[in-house]
Write a structure and sequence with these properties.
The N and C termini lie far apart (about 70 Å). The chain is globular. The protein is of the alpha+beta class. Strands 3-2-1-4 form a four-stranded mixed sheet, covered by helices on one side. About 15% of the residues lie in helices and about 20% in strands.
Length: about 80
C-alpha cells in the first residue's frame, strides 16, 4: 500500500501581538486580516471560507506569541488609583 501525501490543509498563523495588542492572521503568505480579539479570528476565518476550523483547538492554527486567550491590548490596563 502506498502512502498518500496529507490532504492540502491551509496553514493559518495568528502572529504575536503588536504593540496595540492586535494580531495579524495569515494563510501562507496572504494576510487574511487583523484581529483584536478571538472573535475577530473566528470572523476572519469565516470570511475566508475556513469557518470549519475550531479556532481554539485546531492543529491547523499556529499561535505565535501566546495562545487564543492572549490579547494584551485588552487585558493589560493600568489600575485606577
Amino acid at each position: 500500500m502506498t502512502a498518500h501525501p496529507p490532504a492540502d490543509f491551509p496553514r493559518i498563523v495568528v502572529h504575536a501581538p503588536a504593540l496595540d495588542g492586535s494580531r495579524r492572521v495569515t494563510e501562507g503568505d496572504v494576510t487574511l486580516g487583523l484581529a483584536s480579539h478571538l472573535d475577530d479570528v473566528v470572523e476572519i476565518l469565516r470570511m475566508a471560507d475556513l469557518d470549519r476550523i475550531e479556532v481554539e483547538e485546531s492543529d491547523l492554527i499556529e499561535w505565535q506569541g501566546g495562545g487564543p486567550d492572549d490579547w494584551p491590548g485588552l487585558t493589560e490596563h493600568p489600575e485606577s488609583s
